[in-house]
Amino acid sequence: MLKLDRLSMSYGSFRALDDISLHAAPGELVVLLGANGAGKSSIFLTMSGIHRPASGSIQFDGMELSGMKPSQIVEGGLVHCPEGRKLFPGMSVQKNLTLGAYVHRKDREGVRRSLEEVFDLFPILREKKDDPAGSLSGGQQQMVAIGRALMGRPRALLLDEPSLGLAPLVVRQVFEVIQRINRAGTTVLLAEQNAYSALAIADRGYVIEGGRIVLEGDRDALLGNEGVRKAYIGG
Ligand code: ATP
């Protein structure tokens, strides 16, 4: 179980997250909806140990994550795939992927197996494994970013705006892959502005505005909610 309890976080004097409580049960796919600047990335950056919470707790399978280093959090099984992919464009696809397995680097056989699993999930990356990551299309680069996160062997995955800047057909492929990863047993927290596609594959979701949760519900309740439709789906 992944559980935030009354989590707050500030950038200097600006309170970016205010009393956020949310959870994802093992195997669930939970969506965070919200406009630009609502606080979705800040939630993930705090969960993954990049920012320190001002108060509140972040629990994962009985561990308290707040105060842990990012590498310890990855070792604990919670892996963050950041907004904007954050690849090393001049490095090969395989090198970028292998960086995601840094905390497991001593287990060379395990890293090799994870790499094969990622190549099985994204066959195009096997073909392009020696190419610089920056030479790939936007959709393929997003696959590298997701693949790199999988190399960390997550039990729970934080995916920040994986559809950003991608063509509709590619968005569909990315969401299909996310659904496959989730169905194979990985808990997924998915931050998205592409509300309709995200809710289509989700179990539940939360709506974030101004660093607060303003609404939560299961997929059908959110898809049917007039406010959600107007603000995030369009009519
Ligand atoms: P987006 O999709 O645009 O990233 P978001 O919902 O992820 O939106 P955040 O990036 O978490 O939103 O930003 C939440 C608020 O915190 C915004 O008002 C943003 O301007 C502010 N913010 C984000 N990062 C910083 C930072 N490093 N320093 C100061 N303020 C920040």
UniProtKB/TrEMBL annotation:
GO molecular function, one term: ATP binding
SUPFAM superfamilies: P-loop containing nucleoside triphosphate hydrolases
ABC transporter domain span: 2-235
Keyword tags: Amino-acid transport, ATP-binding, Cell membrane, Membrane, Nucleotide-binding, Transport
Transmembrane segments: none
Biological processes, Gene Ontology terms: L-amino acid transport
InterPro entries: AAA+_ATPase, ABC_transporter-like_ATP-bd, ABC_transporter-like_CS, BCAA_Transport_ATP-bd_LivF, P-loop_NTPase
Domain of life: Bacteria
Family classification: Belongs to the ABC transporter superfamily.
Protein name as catalogued: ABC transporter ATP-binding protein
Annotated source species: Verticiella sediminum
